[in-house]
Design a protein that fits this description.
The chain has 273 residues and is α+β, with helices and mostly antiparallel strands. 27% of the residues lie in helices and 32% in strands. The model has no long low-confidence stretch (mean pLDDT 94).
Length: 273
């Protein structure tokens, strides 16, 4: 039987019955964004059996974020976006990977998820650099630093400034914690950052650590992480999660120095145009 795919309008009750979230939780998630974001549903008769959020990222990549899906819903949901697109799935989700491979997706890269213990780290800030919390920053220079650092993050190259998106995902995010988001300055120049998000995932997540090229190999990245960890130590947190491209040697070495261990792997899939 062919599944029917429709664009979400207001079928909160049907979607909640499928995902297990409440209608209130679904409404709250949609309200986080200033602009409406697409959501498509796969239907088996009058029952939702899958959902996908397509998003054109600031790096001009079309990315599909699948919610809970029945295996036969992946291919028709992926069809709502034409041309090149990307998606990511756990390496252990063999049925979903098979379904998307059959729909024209191929493996593009792999990313490891790490867990590391939260503990005090002795890592002084290098001379000539100062570190501030993110609530002391200005949007534009922080956004431009974010874009520059993403150039060295596999899968995020070409990220373009988008002030509306950046404010939503940073200062206005319910998961933004300025004490665990530290920014390094040299004079008035923003030269590095480390950020830990406190949600929506079960564990606090080290979202990005980066330092501009002239300031590397001086221990600044480790110093930034150290300062992000300080409030977590006081709060009694024990573990932080992080992700890094499987081929990123520098990131793997930094995480290993923090006693991080790999706990799972995600496969990014790409469908060519």
């Amino acid at each position: 039987m062919t599944l029917r795919v429709t664009r979400f309008v207001s079928e909160y009750a049907e979607l909640a019955a499928w995902t297990g979230e409440t209608e209130e939780q679904l409404c709250a998630r949609e309200a986080l964004h200033e602009e409406d974001r697409e959501l498509w549903l796969a239907w088996d008769s009058d029952r939702v059996v899958g959902a996908v959020h397509p998003w054109l990222r600031p790096d001009s990549r079309s990315v599909l974020y699948f919610d809970r899906c029945r295996t036969d819903a992946y291919a028709p949901l992926a069809g709502v976006v034409s041309g090149e697109c990307f998606t990511s799935l756990p390496s252990t989700d063999h049925s979903a990977l098979t379904a998307l491979t059959s729909a024209g997706f191929v493996e593009h890269r792999r990313e490891h998820t790490y867990e590391m213990p939260v503990r005090p780290i002795d890592a002084p800030v290098p001379s000539g650099v100062r570190v501030i919390t993110a609530d002391q920053t200005d949007l534009e220079p922080l956004m431009m630093l974010d874009c520059a650092l993403r150039e060295d993050v596999p899968g995020s190259e070409g990220w373009q400034p988008d002030p509306v998106w950046f404010r939503e995902e940073t200062y206005d995010s319910p998961f933004f914690d300025p004490l665990t988001y530290r920014v390094a300055l040299s004079g008035s120049d923003y030269v590095g950052l480390a950020r830990i998000w406190n949600g929506p995932r079960p564990l606090p997540r080290l979202g990005l650590v980066g330092v501009l090229a002239p300031y590397r190999r001086r221990g600044l990245a480790r110093a930034l992480i150290s300062q992000c960890f300080e409030p977590l130590v006081h709060r009694g947190a024990t573990v932080v999660a992080a992700e890094a491209d499987a081929a990123d040697v520098a990131a793997a070495a930094l995480l290993a120095s923090l006693d991080a261990t790999i706990v799972s792997t995600t496969i990014e899939l790409r469908r060519h145009s």
